[in-house]
Known about the structure:
Layout: H1 5-9, H2 14-20, E1 27-31, H3 37-50, E2 59-63, H4 66-78, E3 85-88, H5 89-104, E4 111-112, H6 117-127, H7 133-148, H8 156-164, H9 168-187, E5 190-191, H10 193-206, H11 208-217, E6 220-223, H12 231-241, E7 247-251, H13 266-269, H14 271-274, E8 279-283, E9 285-286, H15 291-302, E10 316-317, E11 326-330, H16 333-349, E12 357-361, H17 367-376, E13 381-384, H18 393-408, H19 415-423, H20 436-458, H21 464-477, E14 486-490, E15 499-504, H22 521-535, E16 538-547, H23 573-580, H24 626-631
Helix pairs in contact: 2-3, 5-10, 6-7, 6-9, 8-9, 10-11, 10-12, 15-22, 16-17, 18-21, 19-20
This protein binds adenosine-5'-triphosphate and magnesium ion (MG).
Amino acid sequence: MTGGPSSLLAGLDPDQLAAVTAPRGPVCVLAGAGTGKTRTIVTRIGYLIHSGHVAAGQVLAVTFTARAAGEMRTRLRAMDIHAAQARTFHAAALRQLRYFWPRVVGDAPWDLLDGKLRLVGQAAHRAGVGTERDTLRDLAGEIEWAKASLIAPEDYPAEVARARRDTPATAELVAKVYAGYESLKTAARLLDFDDLLLHTAAALEEHSEVAEEFRDRYRCFVVDEYQDVTPLQQRVLDAWLGRRDDLTVVGDANQTIYSFAGASPRPLLDFGRRFPEATVVRLERDYRSTPEVVSLANQVISAARDRPAGSRLRLVGQRPKGPDPRFAEFDDEPAEAAAVAGRVKELVDAGTPLSEIAVLYRINAQSEVFEQALAQVDVPYLVRGGERFFARQEVRQAMAAVRTAAVNAPGGGDLPALVRAVLVPLGLTDEPPAGGTARERWESLLALVELAEELASTVPDADLPRYAAELDQRAQAQHPPTVEGVTLASLHAAKGLEWDAVFLVGLVDGTMPIQHADGDDVAIEEERRLLYVGVTRAREHLSLSWSLARTEGGARYRRRSRFLYGLIPENHPAARVAARRSEPPRQAMGRGMNPVRYCRVCGDKLVGTMPIKLGRCESCPAEVDQGLLERLREWRVERSKGLRVPAYVIF
Ligand code: ATP
Ligand code: MG
């Protein structure tokens, strides 16, 4: 290693030091964004290893995204630690399962289910439920929620009735589809991502010799972003631990953004009760962001309702002063995208590296207009967080093509050139396409060529078979290659990461907060936390923008996000418009009866009673889409944890 254990500790503040050097046993770091939680746990791993408390091979660190796991590995390697594992829960489970499977289940083959919509569609068809894509997505999300919450199909109606007050008929239908999906999957000998965790936990719970072997191998567990642990992941963690308590967790309850998928901050907040002897550390110094960004972050989160004890931490900025966050309102999305791209270009020209800039949005569908605008000003970019990299069609095709080429022409030549030649027929043109799906495809293929370049520079005699093996290994570990470019990502995918400059775009009601959160206070609060996650990604430059989709006559079709009220400085032109309004825009309704309906275009209340028969909204010229109404007569399941209502109530 570089230096001794003490050199690892240089630069830590006293609270971080207390967490890093705590004796073996349970440790919990409860702290806000940018306070050094991830840095603290990685340093703790290094400290425990280099001071001889644990062998590197006995450490298993888990987190939630492949990118975060990759960053942990990079930081561990920088401390000269190679044998410690840093993986996502799923990647760790997959690896263990491959090892234990023959002993636990026998040698019958199984495969990973690649996207579940097809099987959900079959199950929905059999259950007599609509099979349109949106419905299937909602059903798939619902099945994921149930599995992550450890709810079996037969218990689903009762659990849902208790937790979410769903209508019994809807719950019965979902349960039927869920059960059908499970049996179709089992018959085809397929496992979905949640099955990996379920089988891993079961293997350890039911096979004592497997548990013993595992617990002999791994002795020290670390979890980052623990506020987003699901009951299923917690069960795996408990199975890993057995009766031991060498567990370090870090998290920030204010960053819980996956509760729609079953995650809960409770295990984080209750850690001290579960392990009374635990070392519990709170960090409040924010090392990531300028005081201006920190102050905005504090404002965003202080407006949250019902913050549980343990999450009321106030960040104190440690960095020198920086620029004020910028707020900008535009007439339409292309104008917003062009302005953002222009500003990105300015930053790049002034020396900000591409990899230090991110454009973050609420839903992946928002990326396209920003992709086009960036392509227009010739700024390379990289879209993250949509499909998993190795699940993308072009990546799967590329891997198959590389394998074939490796068999047909295994020897020698210039590896990057060979890989490029294989990928050209799949769409790797010399010039990048203008934007959209073709550009995304191109970026993935380029990432594969860059991986070949990286491999060729580290392993000089690397050939195609070696490259194919590298791809397989990465696919198994869900460790995608990275390319140099401005990051375009959803707010969910940005968790845990940081950039010098962050653009939060599309901040309009209906997108941020998302439309289906309306009428559900719990879901609205999760949206607010998502904005907090976004704001706290910025080290220095932060821009918040939105577009109102004005017509030529000046009518507005959208409202700026309700979360912006109170944040926009008083001297900003947008603030003057806000001040003229007597009250903030529509607030979330109480749950349940008689939900208010809003125009999906301008956000104003619709007049009339259900079902909506209006052809027009009263406040703006929007037409109510009759086709959509027809389609939405079928119920849809909303994925948020609150009350689910038929979609026609909430568009
Ligand atoms: P998040 O909640 O967003 O995941 P975090 O609490 O995990 O944030 P880190 O990513 O570990 O925060 O750290 C934020 C930034 O602050 C990083 O750039 C890190 O290197 C830096 N940092 C952390 N601790 C210190 C310190 N003691 N001195 C200087 N910089 C620090
Ligand atoms: Mg972190």
